[in-house]
Design brief:
72% of the residues lie in helices and 0% in strands. The protein has helices spanning 6-28, 31-47, 59-76, 87-93, 103-115, 118-129, 134-141, 145-168. The chain has eight helices and no strands. It is mainly alpha-helical. Helix 5 (103-115) packs across helix 8.
Length: 170
């Protein structure tokens, strides 16, 4: 793609667009906005393909990070009203946009998220899927910012631990 190969961007689109769309839709709050955001990310990826550094992560991670950033920017723009998406809604819809993860892995991930405490799950949903900053989360749920950060750290550590255990077990 960095050499101008249009077939390369078409292959990337086919491979990653559905998952990017699901992520953008959850954060931006609507399908049309998500489609625009994914389009913008692919245009940006085409223009900035030479900036990609494989030592920093996979192409998929690079595209998803750009998608998440653009969706958060969209959500924070002055003309967008925020809607609250609860943890239960996230868990119910998690399987839909994650096309590259098989059904078993999606089920395991949903189970791991459901096993977190309500407080841990809430900060992950607000931070990762609604795009709120730690200070915005603290304000929304009326706790100190340090509490938000410790809940996020504990939740991520718990998820990492349980997902590693899952990899070890057949």
């Amino acid at each position: 793609m960095a050499r101008g190969d249009t077939a390369a961007i078409a292959a990337l689109y086919d491979r990653h667009a559905r998952q990017m769309l699901g992520l953008a839709e959850r954060i931006a709050g609507g399908r049309p906005q998500a489609e625009d955001l994914v389009h913008d990310v692919f245009v940006e990826a085409w223009r900035c393909a030479a900036d990609y550094d494989q030592t920093r992560g996979s192409v998929k991670a690079w595209l998803l990070l750009r998608t998440r950033s653009r969706a958060i920017d969209y959500r924070k723009s002055a003309n967008v009203a925020r809607t609250v998406v609860g943890a239960d809604t996230l868990l119910a819809t998690l399987a839909d946009p994650v096309a590259e993860v098989d059904v078993t892995d999606r089920s395991r991930l949903r189970a791991r998220l459901a096993a977190l405490s309500e407080e841990q799950r809430e900060v992950l949903v607000l931070g990762y899927f609604e795009g709120l900053s730690s200070s915005e989360i603290a304000e929304r749920i009326a706790v100190p910012i340090g509490t938000v950060k410790s809940r996020v750290a504990a939740a991520l550590a718990s998820l990492r631990r349980s997902l590693r255990e899952c990899e070890v077990k057949p």
